[in-house]
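Sample intake — UDP-glucose:undecaprenyl-phosphate glucose-1-phosphate transferase
Collected from: Methylobacterium symbioticum
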Amino acid sequence: MALQMLHGRLPESYQAAAGRSRRHVWSALLPQRGRAALRVGISVGVALADVAAILGTALPIEIGYHIVAYRSVLTPADLQSWRMAALLALVVLVTNALRGEYTFESLLAAKRRFQPTASLWLAAWGALLVVTFATKTTTDLSRAVTVLAFALGLPALLLARTATVALVRRHVRPASPSASRVHLVGFEEDIARFYANNEADGLGIRVVGTSYLRRVPHDAGNEARHAQMAEDLDLAVSVVRFLRPDDVFILIPWADTAEVERCIDAFLRVPAALHLRPGTVLDRFPEMSVARVGRLSGINIGRRPLNLAEIVLKRVFDLAAASVALALLAPLFAVLAVLIKLDSPGPVLFRQKRYGFNQQPFAVYKFRSMRTEENAVFRQATRNDARITRVGAFLRKTNLDELPQLLNVLKGEMSLVGPRPHALAHDRSFERRIALYARRHNVRPGITGWAQVNGLRGETLTDLDMERRVAHDLHYIDNWSIWFDIQIIVRTVFSRRAYRNAF
C-alpha cells in the first residue's frame, strides 16, 4: 500500500529515471556518508582543475619565453614562476572554498557568472604584488612572463571551470551515485505542480518516494481533518524511515500554516534534512537566501542594485574614463560645435529634463540634432523626421550626439553605462503600462546600455518594443560588473547592432 502511494502516480520522466535507478542498485543503496565522500571527491577534482589551469598557464609561459628570448631550455630547478602560480592558486582555492564555489549545489547551479572569477583573479594578483613587495622578491619575476600569465591565466581559469562544471552537470543524473535521494510530501495538486515544473534529469536529484496527503472537506470538522492528517503523516514517516532519503521536501504552500506545522513536527523525527518550498516563489527568485537585518530574520529575494564597494568602483571608473574621454575628444567637440552652428540656427547643446537615479529629474546634455521650434511639444524622433538637420542626421547615426553627456557623468547625474534615460512624458506613460519599468531608476542612467548595444533603441512603436528594452535594462542591473560595463562600451563603438535604428 505504501509503495503504491509512493510510485503509482509518478510522471513518465520520473518513472524512466526510476527505471534507470533500478539498473544501478548499488548506487541507490550507497549510504549517505558514501555519497558525501563522492561529492567531496568531485569538489576536490574541480578545485584541482583550477590549480592545474593556473600552473598549466604560468609554467609553459616561462618555458616558452626563455626558448624564444634566450634560445635556451629551462630545467625544472631553474623555474621561478611556480612560486607565483602557487600563491595565485592558494588565494583562488581559499577564496572559492570560503564562498562555497566548490560545493556540489554551487556546481549544479544554473547561473555561472564571469564577474566573480574575474574579480577573484584581480584580487589574487593584488595579493601576489603585496607579498612580493613585502618580501622584496619582485625582481625574481620576469615582467614579460608576469604580464602574459596575468593576461592568459583568467581565460584558462574560466575555461577549466566551464569544462569541469559542464562535466559534473552532464554526469549527475537521477541514477548517479552522487545525486541526492529526495522524498516529496504534499497534497496531490502541490506534487503534481512540482512534477509539471521540473524535469527529472535537470534537478541533480533522485526522487525515491512521494507521500500524498489527503485533503478532508472543511465541513467534516477539525477533529476529522486532524485524524486524517495524523494517519497520513504516520504512514509517510514510516516510509521515510524505510527509504532513508537524504532530504525531505514539504511542498505544501506556506498559506496552509497548520498543515505545514504538523509536517514539520512529524519529519523532524527522522534523520533527513527538512526543506520547505513556498510555492513557485523560489523559482522566480533563484538567488534568495535567509538574511538578518539587526535581530530581524527574513528571506532576502533581492539585494540593493549595487553595494557600497560596487558603487565606489563604478563611480571611480566613470570619473576616470569620462575625464580622459573629454580631454581626448575636445578637438572633436569644437569641430562638431562649428558644424552645428553653420548648419542651422540655435544653440550647440540641447538640454532636456529626464529622470535619473531614484526618479530624480536632471537636465541631460546632447548635441542639437534638430531645428529649434518655438513652444514645441515633445515628440519622439521618427525615421525621416523633417526636424532633423543634415549634421544632426550624421550625429544621430554615429551616436556622436550623446557625447556631451560625459558632462552629466562628471556631475554624478549619469554613468557611462546604464539604462538610457527617457523623456519625462515617456517615463510616466510606460511606468503605468510596463511591469517593473520603474526598476530602471534603481541605478544611474547611462550614455549607453545593454539594450542599446543589442539594437533596442530608437522609436518605440509598441509596448512590446519597450518591454524588450526594459528586460535588457533589468538584466544589466541584476548582472552588473565592471567587466560588463567595459564590454558594453567596446560594443557601443565597434558593434553594428549598436547603430541599428539610429535616426
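Post-analysis note: The radius of gyration is 30 Å.
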